[in-house]
Every structure is written in C-alpha cells, then in structure tokens.
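Section 3.1: Structural characterization of target chains.
Under the original work plan, the team committed to producing a structural model for every single-chain target entering the pipeline before any wet-lab resources were allocated. The record below documents one such target. The sequence was received from the expression subgroup and is listed exactly as submitted; it comprises 1277 residues.
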Amino acid sequence: MRHVFRQGRREELSENGLYANLHYFDSAKLTEDLQQPWIRESQRKQPSSLHLIFAHYGWQFVPACVIYSILEIVIHAFQPLFLGGLISYFAEGQTSISKESAYLYAMGIVLCALITSLVFHPFMFYVFAVGTRIRVAFAGMIYRKCLRAAINGRDGLGAQAISVMSIDLPQFDLTFYFFHDLWKGPVEACLFGYIMYTQINWTALIGIAFIVLLIPLQAWAAKAAAKFRTRSADQRDRRVKLMNEIISAMQVIKMYAWEQSFAKLIAKVRKMEAKAIRGSVSIYAALQCTNMISKVSLFLSLIAYVYTGEAVTARKVFILSSYYSLLNDSLLHFWPLAITTWAQTVVSARRVTEFLQQSESPTSENCSSNCSDNPTLQFDFKKAPAKPLSVGRLHCIESMEKSLTFSQVTASWNKPSVRQARTAHIEDISFKLLPTQLVGIVGNVGCGKSTLLNVILGEVELMQGHIEVHGKLSYAPQEPWIFQASIRDNIVFVEPYEEQRYRAVVHACQLDCDLAMLPHGDATVVGERGISLSGGQKARISLARAVYRKADIYLFDDPLAAVDSRVGKLLMDKCFNRFLGDKLRILVTHHVQLLQNVDHLLLIESGRLTQQGTYAELRDVIEKHAAPDLDAVEADKQLVKRVLSQVDRNSKLFQDPTETVDDQSNKESAFSERQQQGAVGYATYMDYFRALRSPTLVCLVLALFIVARVCQALMDIFISRWATWEENRATPEQFEETRARMVTWYAVLLVCTLALYLLRTFGFFLLCLRISLRLHNLLFDGIIRARMFFFNANPSGRVLNRFSSDIENVDVALPQAMMDSLQFFVDVVAVLVIVAIANYWLLIPAAIMAALMYFCRSFYIGAGRSLKRIESLTRSPVYTHANQTLQGLTTIRALDAMPQLEHTFHGHQNTNSSALFLYTSANRAFSFWTDLICVVYILAVTFSFLVINETFYSGDVGLAITQSMTLVIMCQWGMRQTAELENKMTSVERILEYARTPSEPPLETAKEINLASEWPQKGHIRFCNLRMKYAPDDIEILKGLTFESQPMEKIGIVGRTGAGKSSIIQALFRLAINEGLIEIDGQDIALLGLHDLRSRISIIPQESVLFSGTLRFNLDPFGMKSDEELWNALDDVKLKKYVAGLEGGLSCYMQDGGSNFSMGQRQLVCLARAILRNNRILIMDEATANVDADTDKLIQETIHTKFAQCTVLTIAHRLHTVMDNDSVLVVDAGKIIEFGAPHKLLQLENGALLKLVNQNDKITVNQLKKIAADSYMRKNK
C-alpha cells in the first residue's frame, strides 16, 4: 500500500495502475459457485436470497462475528473498571491504592484501547471481503438472468437490472460490518447493568430502564425504515426506468418538444420518492440524537443516587459515564444501525429474489449436447425421436440434414394467466423447409411475421404443435442492434475474425462505400444504438453480423426496409443468392417484387398461414401485399469514384490496428468517461450548499453544530466539578442547598443540549434533502437540454449511473457522511479543549497527534480519492454492458453470444472489484494508523497524570481520560467518514459536471421577436447556403445547401444511405450546429425558441419511438386533446378497430418501447401523433420503410387528404412514394445534385433521377414516368 499512497500523493492514479483481481473475487467463479445453490433455493416454497446467503456463505462470516463480539464485550467490560481504579488513586485522602497499582490500571486502560485497534481492522477487512464476494456473485446471477429473460417479460428490465445492481447489491458490501452488532448490544446491556448495580445499587437500573424503554422505538424505527426504503426503491426504479426511456428516445422527445411533459412526469415520480426518503431521513436523524440518551441515563441514575442520601464520587460518576457511553454506542447506535441496515438488506434481498424469479425465455435452458429445447423436453440429438413430439421445440445443431419443420404450431407472446385466456399470435401453422432454399415470408403489418421468426428462435412459448430446427441459426432483427464499439467489432461480434470472410461479407452487404467515407474505416467507433449512423447503415451492419456467422439457417427480419432499391437488389443478388446460396435462408419482407426467384413463399394473414408455394403460384394473391416498387435512389457513381480515388481503399477499409492506434485512441477518447482530477475542491462544497439558494439557513444550521457541542462540553465539565465538590463535602446545611442548585443547573444544561441536538440534526438532514432535490432537478435540466452530440458520445449506462447511484449517494449517503464529519470536527476540538482544561501540558501531545493525523490524511487522501473515482468509473461499464445486452437480447441469443458476453461482464466486474479492493485496503490502512495515533495519545493522557508531579482533581482526571478514550471511537468513525465525505462529494462533482453540459439555445422565443401564435401559416421553407455539423470539431455533414419550397408543396428527398437526407431534418429541427440560413414563412429559425420551432413542425421519425405508459400518453403527453380527437386520429390511420379490441382501449398499456405493437403499428401511432398536431409542415423520415403495401397506400392516402394544406418533406427509399410529389430533391455527400418537378427531372439527359428510374424493368419505368407526368399535368392545368 505504501507504493499506492506515494504514487497517489505525486500524481492522479489511473485505471491502468490497478493490480490484477484476486482469485477469490473472480466474478465467473463466484457466479458459478452460487448457481447450483440458487437452483436448489428456487425450488423451495418461498425462495429467499437471504436464506441462500446464510446457507451458502454463513460459515464464512458467522463464527468470525461471534468470536470478535466476545472479545469486544470483554474489553468493554474491563476498561471502565481500570479507569475507576486509576481515578480512585487521585481521590483526596485515599491510601488504599499504591502508585504501582495506579500504573497497572493505566496500563490496562491503554492495552484495552490497543487490542481493540489491532483486532478491529483485520476483522472489518475480512467481512468486507465476504460481502464483496456475495455482491459479485449475485451481480453475475442477475446478468445471467438478463441473458435468459423472456422477451415478453422484459418491460423495463434494463432499468430494473441497473437499479438492483447499483443500489441493492452494494448493500451486501456494508451489511456484514454490522452483523455482530445485532446481538452485541443486548448482551452488553445485561453485563454492564450487573456491573453498575454492584457500584450504585438499584439506581443503576433506572438509567438502564430508560435505555430499554427506548428499544421498542428502535424496533418501530427499523420497521418504518424498511417500509420507507421499499417505497423509495420502488419509486427510484420507476424514475430510472423512465430516465432510461427518455435517454434512449432523446432525439424524438426534442423533435416533438416534449421535454416539459417528461419533466413533469419525472418530477411527479421524484416527489413520491422524496416523500419516502424524507421518512427514512427523519428516522436516521432521530437515531443520530441517541448519543444524548447516555447523558439522560447518567442524569437519572445520579439524581436517584443523590436523593437516596449517597455521596457521588468521581470514580462512580466516570465508571457509570463510561458504561453508559459504551451502551449508548452498542445498544442505541450500532444496534439500531445494525437493525435498520439489516432491514434494508432484507428489502434488497427480496428485490434480488424477485428479479431472479423473473420469467425466462422458453429456450434459456441449454442441454449438454449442443441442442436446446423447452425445459420439459428430453431427447437424444444423434437419433431421431422415437415418436413425434406433441408440444415443444427441438433444436439440433449437428443433424446431417439441415431443415426446419413446423407441425400445427400455435404460439403466444402472452404469459399464462388465470384471469384471461391467452391470445394466439400465430395459429395452426405447418410447413417444412429444406436446405439451400430461399424462403420469403410476406403479409400485412401486425400479421405475425416477426412472431414466426421468434418462434423459430425459441423466444415465444408454444401453446400447441411442435417445431424441429436442424442446423445452426443466425438472425438479423427488424430493429438493428448496434452496440458501442468499432464497426468491425459490431460485424464480427463474438465469432473468430477471418479476414477473407470478413471482406467478402462487407462486400456482399454493400458496406464498402460507407466504410470508405468514414474517417477511420471499419475501425470507426459508433455510439450506443448506432446513434451516429444512418438507418440504412445500421440495417446493413446488423445484416453483415448475421451473414458473417457461419450457420446453416439464416433468418432475416425485413433487412431491406431501410435500404434503397439499388442496394436492395444488390443485397438479394450478392448476399442472399450468391454468398449464402448453399444455406437455408428465410427472409421477411414487404417488397415481394424482389422475391421472384425465391424457392418458396409463405403468406401470413392474421396469424395464420393462408397460402404457400412458389412465386408463380402465388403471384396474384400476394401482389396486393406488396409495395409496388422498392426503387428509390442510387448514389452518384462518379462522386463515389472521386471519393474512392482519394482514399487508399485497403488501408481505409481494413486498417491494420497497429497503424491506427493513435487515431483510434483519440476517437475512443470521445466516448470514454472523464476522470476528475485532484482533490474535491472547496468550490464543489460551496456549489452543493449554494444549490439550496438560502445561505442564511445553511449558516444557521452549521452554527447549531457548534452551539450544541459547547453546551454538551459545559455539561461534561460541570459533572466532573460537581463530583470533585461532592468528595470534599462542606457543612450539611450549605451542602444540601448547594447540591439542590447543582442538580437544577445540571437539568437546565441537559435540556438545552438535548433541544439543540434535535434542532441541529433534523434541520441538517431536511436541508440536505432539499439540496438533493435541487441537484436532481439541475441534473435533469442539464441532460434534457443537452445537445444531441452529448448523447452520441455518452452511453446510456454512464448517464443512468448519475441518475441511479450518484443521486442515491446524494440523497442518503452524503448527508450521513457530512453529518458525521461535521460532528467529528466539533467533537475533536471539544475533547482537546476539555483535556487541556484538566491538564494544560496535554496540549503538547494533542498538537503532535493533530500533526500526525494531518500527515496520515494527506498521505492517504490523494490515493483514496483517486481510487474511489476509479471505482466509480469502473462501475459504469458494468451497467452499460447490462443495458446494451438487454437492448439486443434476441440477437445475442440467436447468435449464441451469451457465454462471450457473460465473460465480458465478468471482466468488467473483476476490474471494478480490483478497484474496490484497493480502495478498501487503502481505507483500512489509513484507519489502522489513525487508531494507533489515538492509542498513543490515550497513553500520553493517562500516564501524564502519574508522571507529572502535580496535584490533580480526581474529577479532572476522569474527565480527561474518558474524553480521550472516546477519541479512538471518534477517529475510527470520523476520519473514515471525512474520507467517505470526500468520496461521496465526487457524486456531486459528477452530477454538476452533467448539470453544466453545454445546452441547446433557449426554448422560448425572445419577446422582441413578435412570433404569431398561428405561425407558420403558409409553410414556405427556404434554405440558403446551409452547412451543418453534429459537434463543433466535427466534419461538415451538409455542405452549402440552397433550395426553396413553395407553400403546401410536397417535396421528396432521395439519396443513398449516408447521403445526408436525415441530416436535413436535423438541421430543420436545430438538433445540430447550423451555419447559414433556414427560413420558414420569412422567419429565420435561428432566432426562434426551440419549443416554438419544434412544436410547429410535425414529424413521423425514422425510428418509431413509443414510451411505456398508456396509448393516450403516447399520443398526447400534455393531455390537451379530447378522447374524440384521439379516436378520430386512430381511425384515420386504421388503428381504431385494433385499439378498441385491446384491454383498456386508449388506456391500454404500452410496454417498454412499444414492444407489444408491431413495427408497422408503431409507425401508424407516430402518424396519428402527426395528425393530432395539425401543423403546416410535416416531415416524414423514411416513415413507410417497415410497412406492407396496403398500409403504405393507407399512409399515402392519409397524407394526401389530412395534409393537403401542408408543406410535406418526405425522405423515402421507394420512388413511387415521391414520383407524384411537386418536387424531388436528390442529395449526395451532403450536397444537392438535382431539385425540381419529377416530370421535368426525368426529361434531363443523364439526370440523377432518370438514372434511378431506368434501373427498373420497362413496365416499372413507364409506370413511374406516367405517375410523374400525370401528377405534373394535373397540377399545371
């Protein structure tokens, strides 16, 4: 540790300097060791994580706690008796105790303090290690549960997993510190009660009785604390889950100008959470006042003893005082703390148990022979089953013949329920698919196509029928899953890297040009959810991942939806037909014109397989389910060639990692979390208190700490002087009169001290709670107002860490650490003053002790602070990894990536354990040395009275030694809490860092700009030399765009993926950094407030985002529309009948991300939102990409009728959706290539639009030209 401390003093420690994780903290081994005991536990009638902990780990900590508590009780029993013997030596006129005996008593006092210090820290370190092993093992179990979670049961599971891992599991780190205190307090009460009875007879029982009477209050407090913790944990889960959704959908929230609506929602949940926290804080505040109870007990016992006619001696006073102080700690501080801690542990353990009992995927059980099935099914994969399976899924990887068979399969997403019958989502489906077949699946939106693929994957539970899957599966989901890593890592994923295959896959999936245009080729790091990529790029990277995996059966869920026609045709030819030509391929798509050469077609209608056969056999039936044409846009080939000529393609596309280390590290640094440097500054503490915006109140509460402690010190000095006076009695008349006055003064001082302590403690905690609420509001405001680049650069786990563990620290742990630290400082000063009053020579060892303490703290604090920050930083990847895993769960399971991802998770855990172990080791070393310094100070104080040849009052001796003895306990707790305070203040730093994130321009328009309430009335849009980039240091995405739309004009925007189509929308909504001019109805939008701008433009976004909550909230979060208007909007998009059939109608519950609606239905909900907004400008960002022909036709009709008086900008991949528009804008590489009426553009020789149209067959070319001509003639009559 010396090396770490020295390095910590010289420089900031970094994660690279961590030692390797110790083998007994290895996450994978600990998780594996706990797996079987948990399986046995889960089979009990009422499984309990706490029962499992005691059954599996009890032998590790229970004996150690029992032995330590016995030793501590014995030391605590003898130390006051040694003190009494030493005080008696200084009593006036005593002759019974020799100087040698006095030295032995003094030695006894010092040895008791020394043994306590030598044993306490190794014991605490040991129980920490046990607690950490338990936490790490359960975190591994929770992640394993995440990997096995049922898709239909994961609503909010990501936020819940992070909440359990970040808030409930750390409870196991702390709880075993207090286990021995559960019985130590009552045992000490009985033993000390007997010893005190021998000293002052029955009057000792009065003080004990007063303490015992308060014990039922402790029980009530523990119960109430558990209740409040449960409430606050539930509300915190809701808040973190909601924040997870908000962060994931931030772009859509900003586009809809819904920030205020979600701010109200968060504020409502936070208010309920604060109410529960206020309850638990009040209980903790009351418990903080318990150190006054020993003073009251001493007062009651002494007054009773005085009124029995006995004389009070310094020996008796300080023996009683010591025992009551010890009882106060063990019975009224550590015992209730142990009870409340274990009450919280019970709640946390219950939440862990509930999480581990979540429903699992039907195929989460793996059999040992590379085969998986429903858990109830047993079979031998080498032989065919003796008889057909009745119900179940057989998946056999090593079968000789690769095939897929469905026999009368009915399946449902719904969980079995007694209350209502399960709805079948696919019904009575039978077919057999053979190796090397290319199979197309078509059908309307919401008919069950994706469900069918999920049934093949084993994600949906079968109600009847059976499935046989013979061969290894690969899968590309409808919603691409991209995680934060390089593009190469996203494609290769968990498969071994083979350069030749990788290059072939990149070429087959049409990613060559995209990678050539990226700054670091395939080494470019993409943000979480691929936020920095276009929709088409994400779709093709997701497709490449599935294709790269060597499998026998490939499942593709509508991968062509987000790509243009040229790329679609190339993918069909190069990827599906050539590269995977010898495999069984199953392709879900709405674009059936690309399926002319498939071997087999399945037509699904309302969950049933109505037709199957070849394309020729089904041609007439399926044409109505087809989009008439997939064609849209081809990139300008000359432009691409020019780009490629400037780039060394091989070095750009497939960079050697050694050549790009510097570039890549710079790129990754944008995505890495910044570690704070140096001490937590004075400014951070000021900012914390300044958040309250009431400096007078802060100063008043802090002043109460000093006043209360002065009052207590006066009372302590008064008792010692009274005891000395009692030993030197005057005449009886004067004696009784003075004694009565003494008792009165004693009572007054006690009442004043008690009142001040109550005021101080409750005032401080309620003040901290108000600060905490303000800091949360500042953090939320900072995040919700941050620019979009912030969310591209920071993964959700990192941001959620601020809202979960950092806010929890500021809510609960920080006020406690700050309270203890403030109390420690005033207590130390008070003790040194009191001891100096008794013997001024003791100022010398006090000064030496203070210097040594300061040296120790300065030696430790640099390393301690760095290690705490590293521990916080290494925690974030654990949560981010868990969150990203849940986002791509189906893909992960389909690609058999669970073992590798679990290995990565264990790696993150091990790094965090290494940081935590080093931090705790540093903490323990620091505490151990401060304790030894205190023991030396006690030795100096105790022996000073014997060595210095002066006469001392027995009361002063007792007061000085008892005060110095309390110093050990103070320093054990106080120095640790001051360091803990600084560590917890890093949470305030981290919160303030995000609260001060550079924000977007103002939401409201300046008053001097007189914006009409009905603006824009015409919908006239003008771009003039517009340049746009996502971040100040980024390259320009849009490069000098200039065009103008007329009022009510319908403009189609086309261009290859990554050409900058969606960036035009970003610029219009001012989501990025614009340079140049955009005007709407003659008003420069750069001068408008963002809410005024964004709320006046309707959008149907590229990714249809829904939030968990009711459908009503998703349509109208501000509650401004009537039910009739909502139903009309749903009727316009043909969802009224479907929604009316759902339980609750408009109040039906939408699961996380709207996962209980199909992609097409989610798109229709977004269209309904646009209808409800009734604005003059509508933006459609590839809105019809995931819908079938009928739905597409419906959307186009709705646009023509409902938005006839609006200016409509449509970003589309399919030419038929824009050929009847007034104008078409062709974009490539951020520049405009062509702009004009489609009919006129088609007359241009070598025109970009003409090239695109001519790529189709003659019939389609003529049809498209006719649509353009008819539209042009109709509009120009």
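The CA atoms of residues 61 and 127 lie 7 Å apart.
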